[in-house]
């Protein structure tokens, strides 16, 4: 799960363009962002002093676990950064697992009271600067706003589910990937008909010329749209389902 979390954060950072290059803009926004970040986490996460900390995701789900995350950039040494978080959580009586060195590092701590796993990841960013990603992962104990896959059919004997869902103020989307041992044709027939029984309306088939081993079906239902990709693999068929809220764009217009 840790690798999936890390990869997801990197994708989100690149997608939403959270990095700002103008130092003047950073300075002007520092007070506003730092005041908001103290109210951002639902869990006990300290704010690293003297930095501008930006939210990445406030309500996302990876493999049915809720996540919150943020990041900041600093010129401080990774060991110094790591010690800040180690000292904070050890003062709370928590056991910290960490590995820090001059070029980066990572930290994990399990908070039994909150039932969360908290992670700190430090990576080189620019010359003499480091990017620090902070995340909290909690088992899904809360009601989801979208519950994207409640009306999405799944073919029998499917396995290996990996899902990611987000319920941010600027977009609601979800994706899940899994496999099953049945032939491509059987899967195509199932996913062409089964969504209709769940109230979905068939929109179109998306296919690429001369490629017969992979097809995508598009559906609509109220304010949601869904695409199901069906791809033939060596031991059966791979399925990827994407569900989006049509009322909310993937990227806010004001984000640059």
What order do the helices and strands come in, and which of them pair?
Layout: H1 2-16, H2 23-37, E1 53-62, E2 65-74, H3 78-91, E3 96-101, E4 104-111, E5 116-124, E6 130-139, E7 159-167, E8 172-180, H4 184-197, E9 201-206, E10 214-221, E11 224-233, E12 236-245
Antiparallel strand pairs: 1-2, 1-7, 2-6, 3-4, 4-5, 5-6, 7-8, 8-12, 9-10, 10-11, 11-12
Description:
The longest helix has 15 residues, at 2-16. A hairpin with a 4-residue loop joins strand 4 and strand 5 (116-124). The chain starts with a helix and ends in an 11-residue tail after the last strand. It has helices spanning 2-16, 23-37, 78-91, 184-197, and strands at 53-62, 65-74, 96-101, 104-111, 116-124, 130-139, 159-167, 172-180, 201-206, 214-221, 224-233, 236-245. By secondary structure, the chain is α+β, with helices and mostly antiparallel strands. Mean pLDDT is 78; it is low at 1-31 and 250-256. Helix content is 23%, strand content 41%.
Quick recap of the structure?
This protein has about 260 residues and is α+β, with helices and mostly antiparallel strands. It has helices at about 1-15, 25-35, 80-90, 185-195; strands at about 55-60, 65-75, 95-100, 105-110, 115-125, 130-140, 160-165, 170-180, 200-205, 215-220, 225-235, 235-245.
